[in-house]
Target: Carbohydrate ABC transporter ATP-binding protein, CUT1 family
Amino acid sequence: MAGVKLERVNKRFGSTRVIDDVSMAIGDGEFVVFVGPSGCGKSTLLRLIAGLESITHGDLLIDEQRVNNLTPQERGIGMVFQSYALYPHMSVYQNIAFGLKLAKADKQTVDERVRQTAKILQLDGLLERLPKALSGGQRQRVAIGRAMAREPKILLFDEPLSNLDAALRVQTRNEIARLHERLGSTMIYVTHDQVEAMTLADRIVVLNAGHVEQIGTPRELYERPASRFVAGFIGSPKMNFIEVTAHPVPEQGCRVEISAVGQRTLPLAFSAGSASEATLGVRPEHLIPSPSKDGQGLEIVNVEYLGSEAYLYLERDDGELLVCRTQASSSFQRGERVVLDFDPVHAHLFDRDGRAMAPLARHESITEPQGTMS
Ligand SMILES: Nc1ncnc2c1ncn2[C@@H]1O[C@H](COP(=O)(O)OP(=O)(O)OP(=O)(O)O)[C@@H](O)[C@H]1O
Model:
């Protein structure tokens, strides 16, 4: 087991900077997940940690030791890829044993480790099979076993579940979570799947164009995103964004005027000294729809019924859609008009640079006639 430290790590491919001054400290035994849009540098960052790419500038430390110039083997790292990359002509046993043999472990150690690894991953009944006689989930477990068997200090995963169908993904995700609990090893995991990130991570690193947008627990990122980018990236369906004019109100927070509606005071410290354009953010579960009494309001253009809940899609004047998450039992219909409300305590506000306003020390929502959006 080992902690990992990145200190101002940069990576260039030619003149293109792909990783931009990334610093972070990953604790011993921590499960950290890298997320971000396609091309943001998640895999590159993982490969830099693994030693499969060289760091252009900056330092990588494992257990407080600089490892920039060490090979993957010398770093004590095991890696699991999206494509399982098993040797097709080798049995499960031989696949798991491969790295150990390469490291010249004696026969008895190899046998003990393979059997122990197979037991943890519930592969003990499959040791003699070839990869082609395994399901996708079983193959991925063999790939994890192969990485685990050498007892690396750190396990890295690059989208390991992408090739599995939905049911197997859930199952294997659970297995990885249990494996982490059992082994207690440091794990770093790349995914573009939100659910994987939220459910597996002790902490999530959100990357954007090669730099770190925010690092935090899943709850911190969901409830207190530091930027509009993180707010829009974490959460499904996405947070709703509405352009507003915001006015700082001394001691009270920040008053927003929502077009063609009323005003609301949000318990957030507004950074600008005077009225300024800003973006209001409200998650779908915090928008409260109610039937319009006078034909005003927004039209429901689609209802998605998901069994346990339903999503209402509402069209704004500018053609943009807002999403409301409601109970499946709600009776809203397509074509109906609704007015919206929200609790200011659950609202987010981002300045023109996309930075989130910090909450005031006290959180209660404040006065004003109840504003509704239409
Ligand atoms: N060997 C390489 N040479 C040049 N550019 C590269 C190389 N490897 C990656 N890149 C570029 O670096 C950027 C980051 O790639 P990377 O694979 O790390 O992104 P990612 O976030 O993992 O994306 P995805 O989710 O699509 O896998 C991309 O713009 C990619 O084109």
Observations:
- The pocket of adenosine-5'-triphosphate is lined by residues 13, 18, 36, 38-44, 192 (CB under 6 Å).
